[in-house]
Design goal:
Elements: H1 5-13, H2 19-32, E1 39-42, H3 46-58, E2 70-74, H4 101-108, E3 112-117, H5 151-158, E4 164-169, H6 175-180, E5 184-187, E6 207-212, H7 215-225, E7 255-259, H8 269-284, E8 288-292, H9 300-315, H10 334-345, H11 348-361, H12 368-390, E9 393-397, H13 413-418, H14 424-428, E10 432-437, E11 445-450, H15 455-469
Parallel strand pairs: 2-3, 2-4, 7-8, 7-9
Antiparallel strand pairs: 1-3, 4-6, 5-6, 5-10, 9-11, 10-11
Helix pairs in contact: 2-3, 7-15, 9-11, 9-12
Bound molecules: glutamine.
């Protein structure tokens, strides 16, 4: 059992173990935990790739930042030659011809791709229950959902099937499952990680990030996968995110605000308790923690639901039965081919969002709701901007609730959307955030939010909290 990516790299560097042994260990764990349903595809070449790495190390190749670290990857990230499905029948047998930039970088740093993890279909959902193929269970209690949409990435790390995992987050899909599975989950500032080869859900909100057991691994991973990429014009200019460890960082004197109207949101008792405990801890560390008015926050989820659906409806139009995936056999016209194929290959949640997005973008009422949502999005961003002129961080619970039983919310999409109440505004406003578990095992988490590209300080602060919790 390895505690962290760093401990694996060290052990390989010191010749205490080999990449092959480490990979074999995790493949064994995946086999033992099959019932959890974390993985959709295991990389059959993982052992061979680890052996090749060992051979290169023997010949004197230096150890990279992820030397021999096995990484689980959400199934919406392209992996050359390794099936990538987005947990959808629309891509059920799709073998990508190239790697996403972030995968290329993991490989260059010596990481080994263990396999592809289950998720909600095309990342739309919060529990893995919209996956076309399987439901993932929460390793802390298999009757509960692990959260989503990066469901398998969370359960893989929480069960010890992987030491770190790549997830993607459009409205909370890294932070919410991290919270449900008691892990650290990091949504980097928009632009930090190239989106090239990450299958789009909603372009203006999507970022890949990391789920791990400690802040140091979040940093290590994003230093590898992040930085400028000429294939993604929205990626940052700097070659590297430059995240640095700072053991002497102190929250002493830092100003932290939390939403004053928190009671207006439906918070479950355990979540509230963890949050209050978090406030006390930050105060003990010398921070000034004060309630702040965020009047627009109450509208964030509605704005998110409109914007996400519009971007989804346009992104999903490429899955038309012509270029990718299966196609129905009987049709009289192109229109019928599209309609029949798309009705057959997409699940209910994906179809619902395409329908809603098409409605919002329709010209019938001059895109009234979409335009309004864009205005409120701006207002929310302005509110945050004004806030960050005086404060260092925002603090919220990561989710308003605890992981729920599998099946409990299946028929009520509106309740399903609620758990991302506090995460969506971060994506809407291009900020960065990390989810910090307040205890080992089931319980609430803190979400610490910082201004765009203040990721370095965000992780340093999160690490100080982690140290105090240990
Ligand atoms: N659960 C949210 C949704 O369904 C967030 C999804 C995500 O971040 N990919 O939209």
């Amino acid at each position: 059992m390895y505690k962290s990516a760093a401990s694996i790299v060290e052990a390989i560097k010191n010749k205490e173990t080999t990449a092959e042994q480490v990979t074999a260990y995790y493949l064994q764990k995946i086999e033992e935990n099959k019932d959890l349903g974390s993985f959709l595809t295991v990389n059959e070449k993982a052992l061979e790739e680890a052996r090749e790495l060992d051979a290169r190390l023997l010949q004197g190749e230096p150890c990279g930042a992820l030397c021999g670290v096995p990484v689980a990857v959400k199934d919406n990230v392209l992996t050359e030659g390794l099936r990538t499905t987005c947990a959808s029948n629309a891509l059920k047998d799709f073998i990508p011809p190239y790697d996403a930039t972030l995968i290329t970088r993991i490989k260059e740093a010596g990481g080994i791709i263990l396999g592809k993890t289950n998720m909600d279909e095309f990342a739309m959902g919060s529990s893995s229950e919209t996956s076309a193929f399987q439901i993932t269970k929460n390793p802390l209690d298999p009757n509960l959902v692990p959260g989503g949409s990066s469901s398998g990435s969370a359960s893989a790390v929480a069960s010890g099937e992987a030491v770190v995992a790549i997830g993607t987050d459009t409205g909370g899909s890294i932070r919410q499952p991290a919270s449900y599975c008691s892990l650290y989950g990091y949504y980097p500032s928009y632009g930090t990680v190239s989106r090239s080869g990450v299958i789009s859900m909603a372009n203006t909100l999507d970022q890949a990030g990391v789920l791990a057991n400690c802040v140091a691994d979040l940093r290590r991973m994003v230093n590898v996968i992040g930085g400028c990429d000429e294939k993604d014009p929205t990626s940052m200019r700097e070659a590297s995110p430059g995240l640095e460890e700072n053991p002497s960082y102190s929250l002493q004197g830092k100003r932290i605000g939390y939403p004053a109207n928190l009671d207006a949101f439906p918070l479950e008792t355990e979540v509230k308790e963890s949050f209050d405990k978090g406030i006390r801890l930050l105060e003990e560390l010398g921070a000034e923690v004060v309630p702040v008015e965020f009047p627009t926050l109450a509208y964030a989820l509605s704005v998110y639901n409109i914007i996400v659906a519009t971007e989804v409806s346009s992104n999903m139009s490429r899955f038309d039965g012509i270029v990718y995936g299966p196609r129905v056999d009987e049709y009289q016209s192109n229109d019928e081919l599209y309609k029949k194929t798309r009705s057959a290959v997409f699940g209910e949640e994906v179809q619902r969002r395409i329908a809603m997005g098409t409605l919002y973008l329709g010209s019938d009422d001059e895109q009234r709701l979409y335009k309004k949502a864009m205005k409120v999005r701006r207002k929310l961003a302005d509110e945050y901007r004004a806030f960050f002129a005086d404060y260092d961080f925002v603090l919220t619970p990561t989710t308003n609730d605890m992981p729920f039983p599998i099946g409990a919310r299946k028929d009520d999409p509106m309740v399903m959307y609620d758990s991302e109440l506090f995460t969506v505004s971060v994506n809407l406003c291009g900020l960065c955030a990390v989810s910090i578990p307040m205890q080992k095992g089931l319980g609430g988490s803190l979400q610490l939010i910082a201004e765009r590209f203040n990721d370095n300080e965000l992780l340093q602060a999160a690490e100080q909290i982690e140290r105090s919790l240990a």
